[in-house]
Amino acid sequence: MNAELAIILIACLTAVACAIPGVFLVLRKMALISDAISHSILPGIVIGFFITEDLASPWLILLAAFSGIITVVLVEAIQKTGLVKEDTAIGLVFPALFSIGVLLIAIYANDIHLDTDAVLVGRLEYAAFDKLMIDHVSYGPKSMWTISITLAVTLALLFAFYKELKLSTFDVGLSSALGFSPVILHYGLMSIASVTTVVSFDAVGAILVVALMIAPAAAAYLLTTDLKKMIVLSVLFGIMSAIGGYYFALWLDASISGSITTVLGLIFLLVYLFAPTNGLIAVLFRQKRQRVEVSLLTFLLHLNNHDSIEERRVAHLQEHINWGKVRAKTVLELAQKNNMITMQGEVVALTNKGLKFTEKALDYIITNKDEQIEDMKDDFFLFRG
Amino acid sequence: MELTDFFTDYTLRTITLGTAVLGAICGMLGSFAVLRKQSLLGDAISHAALPGIALAFLFTGLKDSNVLLLGALISGFIGTVWIRGIVTKTHLKTDTALGLILSLFFGFGELVLSYLKKQPDANQAGLDKYLFGQAATLVQSDVIVMIIVTGISLVVMLLFWKEFKLLLFDKNYAMTLGFNTRFIDGLISFFIVLAIVIGLQTVGVVLMSAMLLAPAAAARQWTNSLGMMVILAAVFGAFSGVFGTGISASYNNLSTGPVIVLVAAVFVGVSFIFSPSRGVLFKQIRLIRNRRDLELKKTLYFMYGIVEKHEDISRPHSIKILNGFQGFTRGTLKALSDKSWITIKGQDWSLTEEGFQTAENLYNTNMPES
Description:
Chain A has about 375 residues and is mostly helical. Chain A is built from 16 helices and four strands. Chains A and B meet through α2, α4, α5, α9 and α11 of A and α3, α4, α5, α11 and α13 of B.
């Protein structure tokens, strides 16, 4: 296997292994725990490295993953004392642990294969050359093995506990009432996240692993609310960014992991802007439309309230409801287009259809029951068409 | 290194002054971040500042710290705006938005840094110091900038003290009083971003958030008054800065960021444990004392139950009949007699008039602290 293919494969496997726990972290509002874990496994990795002298050793992975769990426990313990809020607890624990890791490297590990730069961004470039050797036979890059095994375990657990995970993510109360321990699922997820972070650490580093976990899931969450689709989409985004990032880095001659993150950022930006229902543009458009609809309703109600010709003059309406010229014109045109009003010169009158519509709206406002508005939604739909 | 070096060595004095000022402003503004539950916003902003530093160098080619920090300020500000955009316009939650901006901006910053490293002509060495901070690179002009920024933020904070306080504790009330909450909100956020940016050179993007949080979280444990908290946080921050720099300077120029953070973490740990009103230690002591007091009164009430049936309240009873009672020990008996609620004669006890009265009123009145 040549180095290029190996690097791409490692990047893709890492992206997929991170994306799956990432989906659940985002949905459970624990995205920042991944940040905390990714920083605070550092002392575990450094101490593990002193003992095993091998970054891909399973003992090191377990030790470091354990220090990730300790972080979670520590954050929860500090939170339980009630001295500070959860976010402050996270913000206090991980910088302290990370500092210990950085200082350990600086003091004891100056001339070995661990430096603070690699800690932050990893060294995907070299991952492909660190081969697994057994009896002088090469079995491919070490990190490919560790990541594949982690991914396989993650997938197996995902398929085995999909139902439980889904339930406890969306309804903790129901899932614990049904007998699935939320604590076990919580720590199970945290363990998977820790192990994945440790394994990905060598390739992409402490901070970029956070990007690989959160960004694909966040982008997918903007596109769908179906959990299965969300997982598939985030895996796809992860793979896309891994491959795209590799070639972008090649072209620019720059850090691969930095470029993967940048591609991820671009993907997220595109989704954030253009997602069909939850994207920024769609949201702004919808908010504008709703403003017009509310204005129209106000306008019709006002007409319904006042019979005198004086109150129904266009000029007066502008004053009375305090609209600008443009807005008044839009609303008038919309109402006319839908045959809600008739204009006799400057005087506006409700048509029969307009009257009925207004009464329905009033009914809804007074009773505030959802049934009243059900068919009105269709009426509004007419305006939009 | 001698202690007097701090006063005689010009470089060391500059650096120490710089980190002290930095710690003070971070503690001061960090108090607001902690109370607004925006602790992790600082983390996101400081990471988001990295591409600004890298791009400022890429475009200007200058390594002047003011130019780089201006870049950091701009990209930190863009990050803040985008976080707000994500939270208000989509259904993604704050934690996701913070994590996204933090990691995506940082990754992009790393990309630009690694690109700069490969450029043959650009003298980019030294930009790395912004990752973990290197206080040794502070020069007098940097310190002057820090002092000016601290002075401005101090003046603004004093001018808007009432508004800041109101917004912190009751935003809706501030709105109904007609304060422009968006402006005040923006003002606080702006100064927090500013504090983060001027700390980048000393503490670095990765650990800057802790510099903001730790002194404030420590100060919070000692007081319930905002003014006191801000002052204490500034003092803790300044001490962390000075001690951290001192330690890192005497150990072969370790990165200052991690050392300062660890010193600040010690302040937090000590405050969490030893603060008289909120600390874990005194809370535990109070808990044990209350439990003991409760046991004492339970025993007294049990005795009262026995005595009640007899006409003579001071009639002696055998100690043995108390043996099955939960919470009863020899110690309790002695404590009770010390309070002169009972008297002990040999193997018998008898309730005093005072003890009888106390037991009778145990559930009726609030007992005075004993």
